[in-house]
Amino acid sequence: MQKQAIFQSKLLPYALVAPQLAIVLIFFYWPALQAVIQSFLLQDAFGLSTTFVWFENYVELFSDPAYFEAILRTFFFSFAIAVSSLSFALLLAVMADKPLRGVMLYRTLLIWPYAVAPPVVGVLWIFMLHPSLGVLSRYLRGLGIDWNPLLDGDQAAALIILAAAWKQISYNFLFFLAGLQSIPRSVLEAAAIDGARPMRRFWTVTFPLLSPTIFFLLVVNIVYAFFDTFGIIDTMTRGGPGKSTETLVYKVYSDGLLGGNLGSSAAQSVVLMVMVIVLTGIQFRFVERKVTY
Amino acid sequence: MANVTLRNVRKTYPGGFEAIKGVDVDVGDGQFCVLVGPSGCGKSTLLRMVAGLETVTGGEIDIGGRIVNGIEPADRDIAMVFQNYALYPHMSVYNNMAYGLRNRGMAETEIRTRVDEAARILELTSMLERKPRQLSGGQRQRVAMGRAIVRQPKVFLFDEPLSNLDAKLRIAMRVEIRKLQRRLNTTSIYVTHDQLEAMTLADILVVMNGGQVEQVGNPLAIYERPATTFVASFIGAPPMNLMSTRPEEIRSQLAGSAAADAGILGIRPEDFVITDQTPAGGVALPLTVEAIERVGAETFVYGCREQEEQHVAATPGELPPGEIIVRIPGTDAPAIGAKIRVAAVRNKLHLFSGDGRKRLEA
């Protein structure tokens, strides 16, 4: 078989890649370029005039303590979501890796939540934990907990973390299960003969051998927590109460679209873009090459 | 130091498949027992049952006077060398060997002494800090051996440890394993499908087929007196020539003795002599030479009998019906197409019942 396709016409190959190129250019590069341009502009309050202000938007952004709070909050959210989702998914994967009856059924069921869209996840959890509608809220109050995420910022944050982590468990579970199944059985059997009890076997053999998977998922989960939690936050708390659940991405939206500060919003977008580039760089550099052990 | 005794050991899988159909083997203290058989005969399953990696569904496994049926692998005081070595890929050679000792809470100084000693014996001293992926196949094999010997267990279990090595290294390691086992004098059970490995390593040879033991004994005794046609054709290369006694040609030569009841006659290739005479009580066959293989010290002559009609029960390593292999020393051989006559003396004949399950004494 020929590796290189031969085209009769010189134009045909260009015509074939054109749709894909058009999509990438129109929907990715064009908005990105717009954001960069916008970040150098300042509009007056009524949107009547626009001034080119160089880096003023950035200077203002980085001298705003609220922005640093949002950065810290986002890091905390990412960390909490990644850790809780990864550890719970790993636990489930270890359980599902055991040869048990009906294993295919519950493996399939565990993967389902991945198909649920983020806003739907938000709505689901609101129905369970809304202070006045939620089915679980009654029990929490029955336990003496003053449950009201609409007023209590920490509870709201916990709710977002819970919903976002839950959504990501399926994805992590899938990768962990594949990772576990790629560990040769005989290595674990050798460890069993070598006197390692199940817990020790897990921490000294299984866990280190899963480290490439764990690292890969860590990067993916951080990216997810940074950017894909928008739908969950928007349906559940809209960044509130106060700004206690406003992550960087949500701040771009609320400052720009709700607050009308397009220049600052654009500057924030550019900062986020840089973060994505860095994270993707890390992923390509380390994950693609695989973590060596 | 321990005996290993298997008493009517059985393994039935939940689906009803019977992998091991009642095995009795007694391995004495310090002996080297080899389980040999074709793939799927249950030899690896049996070994894994001794290790505790497979449950025992019937019978008893006794290691050093203790029934270990319900005991965890870790508590059986055994060490196992796996076919794919099963080294811990993320640990250095040193840690691979030290792991089992650390799990048992041994002092770090004692661990170092033992690992250094094992590394010296196995010539791994310069590689202790390397990771398994930086080692060659033979070196990995030695690390796997080292991991077993540092533990100083009662029993070594080997699951086809040499099958991933090239032919030359396999022979070298075979000799190493035997020397090491003699030196440590540890009871060992070794699984292989290679009859040459089995013959050269074993104190006791257990030939298995279809989840059952066909024959147990000293390897040479088995070679000289195989109990069934399966053993006869499995042990020895090239395999024993087996033929039906039905044709008049053979029946007339065997007449007038207990051998008359035999259904199958077996003659090892090296027991044939090319001659025009028929030894008294022996068997002579006319052959047409079809192929010659000269390997230097000896020559294999493949001949075809003229009047073969009956196909002997199918067994591994069996020759096509009517074909006879003759092994002669040196390189002098008849030409292809030549008509020759080969003969074997009476006490070199192996006689079996018609179904091949029973050896008959002439």
Automatic annotation (TrEMBL), chain A:
Gene Ontology annotations of biological process type: transmembrane transport
SUPFAM superfamilies in the cross-refs: MetI-like
Residue span(s) of domain ABC transmembrane type-1: 71-283
InterPro entries from the UniProt entry: MetI-like, MetI-like_sf, UgpAE/MalFG_permease
Membrane topology: Multi-pass membrane protein
Signal sequence region: none
Keyword check for Acyltransferase: no
UniProt key word Transmembrane: yes
Compartments where found: Cell inner membrane; Cell membrane
GO CC annotations, alphabetized: plasma membrane
Entry keywords, A to Z: Cell inner membrane, Cell membrane, Membrane, Transmembrane, Transmembrane helix, Transport
Transmembrane segments: 12-32, 75-96, 108-128, 156-180, 201-227, 266-287
Self-association state and partner proteins as the record states: The complex is composed of two ATP-binding proteins (UgpC), two transmembrane proteins (UgpA and UgpE) and a solute-binding protein (UgpB).
Function: Part of the ABC transporter complex UgpBAEC involved in sn-glycerol-3-phosphate (G3P) import. Probably responsible for the translocation of the substrate across the membrane.
Assigned protein family: Belongs to the binding-protein-dependent transport system permease family.
The protein, known as: sn-glycerol-3-phosphate transport system permease protein UgpA
Automatic annotation (TrEMBL), chain B:
A GO CC term attached to the entry: ATP-binding cassette (ABC) transporter complex, substrate-binding subunit-containing
Entry membrane topology: Peripheral membrane protein
Localization (cell): Cell inner membrane
InterPro entries, per the entry: AAA+_ATPase (IPR003593), ABC_transporter-like_ATP-bd (IPR003439), ABC_transporter-like_CS (IPR017871), ABC_transpr_MalK-like (IPR015855), ABC_transpr_MalK/UgpC-like (IPR047641), Mo/tungstate-bd_C_term_dom (IPR008995), NA-bd_OB-fold (IPR012340), P-loop_NTPase (IPR027417)
Alphabetized UniProt keyword annotations: ATP-binding, Cell inner membrane, Cell membrane, Membrane, Nucleotide-binding, Sugar transport, Translocase, Transport
Any single Pfam family the record assigns to this protein: ABC_tran
BP-aspect Gene Ontology terms: carbohydrate transport; glycerol-3-phosphate transmembrane transport; glycerophosphodiester transmembrane transport
UniProt keyword Oxidoreductase present: no
GO terms for MF: ABC-type transporter activity; ATP binding; ATP hydrolysis activity
Residues in the signal sequence: none
Ranges of residues in domain ABC transporter: 4-235
PROSITE patterns membership: ABC_TRANSPORTER_1, ABC_TRANSPORTER_2
Primary site of residence: membrane
Family: Belongs to the ABC transporter superfamily.
PANTHER family recorded: MALTODEXTRIN IMPORT ATP-BINDING PROTEIN MSMX (PTHR43875), SN-GLYCEROL-3-PHOSPHATE IMPORT ATP-BINDING PROTEIN UGPC (PTHR43875:SF12)
Function field: Involved in beta-(1-->2)glucan export. Transmembrane domains (TMD) form a pore in the inner membrane and the ATP-binding domain (NBD) is responsible for energy generation.
Protein name from the UniProt record: sn-glycerol-3-phosphate import ATP-binding protein UgpC
